[in-house]
Amino acid sequence: MTDPEMDVERELLSQPLREPVLCSAIKDLQFPAGSRGLDAGCGIGLQTMLLAEHVGSGGSVTGLDISPEAIGSASDIVNEAGLSDSIAFREGDLNIIPFNDNTFDWAWSADCVGYIPADPLHMLNELVRVVKPGGTVAIIAWSSEKLLPGYPLLEARLNATTSGMAPFLKGKNPEQHFLRSFGWFRQAGFVDLSARTFSGQACAPLADDMYNALAALFKMRWEGAGQELADEDRKEFFRLCHQESRDFILRHPDYYAFFTYSMFHGRVPG
């Protein structure tokens, strides 16, 4: 079981990395101004606010998450930002979305549908149900990264560990891989399918918020990975990827990294 406070902290720390990329994806979808949307798996509501900004003061966004702690934090953040008039939150399971048919003009899910260890097709079927005919459903998730410039072999070996492959763990059906999302969308009956990949980057000198975001990402991405490495790789891993090391790679004056988010979306028929 994860620590709710740790999850909130990680989401806040990661926002400098995620926000510019998610904003680009939201803009690309062109949700209509004044429309009503659903943020499925909203976490602490940071992306919900980005969606609400896009649809404008005449629109509204409802954030849905199974975690009561996340919903509580999201409500606090939105109230403090003065956005409670256009944003609401609801605790609920994406497998049984607690809204009537044809409630929303569109739905969005970031790092949730197709990314968490649950049946993505069932969730997409629920999103089809609650989105009006002709509306858009989009899912987006982290899909790749290059974080260790100059050390491609070490990074490849880290990404081949259990932690590095998560959430696509050994033995998982290839059809359940996020990059096979088109198959889920077709089975759920969507039309006008489309996909696009968005990239973000970080380069030295790193601002404090970007440095902290990347340091947190290293911990999340490769937590426990050292146990699966050979001795030589393990030493390099601790030397380059731990803040306590004087050679921590984020301090390198020529540091550069990039990462990608991939988005799949389709239109509800009708």
Task: Quickly list its features.
single chain; 270 residues; alpha/beta; Rossmann fold; 7 strands
Q: Any idea how many domains?
A: 1
Second rung of CATH, namely the architecture: 3-Layer(aba) Sandwich
Please identify the oligomeric state: single chain
How many strand units?
7
Biggest sheet layout: 7 strands, mixed
Biggest sheet strand line-up: 3-2-1-4-5-7-6
CATH topology: Rossmann fold
Fraction of helical residues: 25-40%
Explain what the structure shows.
- The chain has 270 residues and is of the alpha/beta class.
- The chain has a single domain, classed as Vaccinia Virus protein VP39 (Rossmann fold, 3-Layer(aba) Sandwich).
- Helices cover 39% and strands 24% of the residues.
- It has a seven-stranded mixed sheet, sandwiched between helices.
- Helix 1 runs parallel beside helix 2.
- The mean pLDDT is 94.
Sum this structure up briefly:
The chain is 39% helix and 24% strand. The protein has helices spanning 4-29, 46-55, 68-81, 120-130, 152-159, 162-165, 181-187, 208-221, 231-241; strands at 36-40, 60-65, 87-91, 104-110, 131-146, 191-203, 256-267.
Architecture blueprint of SSEs:
Elements: H1 4-29, E1 36-40, H2 46-55, E2 60-65, H3 68-81, E3 87-91, E4 104-110, H4 120-130, E5 131-146, H5 152-159, H6 162-165, H7 181-187, E6 191-203, H8 208-221, H9 231-241, E7 256-267
Parallel strand pairs: 1-2, 1-4, 2-3, 4-5
Antiparallel strand pairs: 5-7, 6-7
Helix pairs in contact: 1-2, 1-8
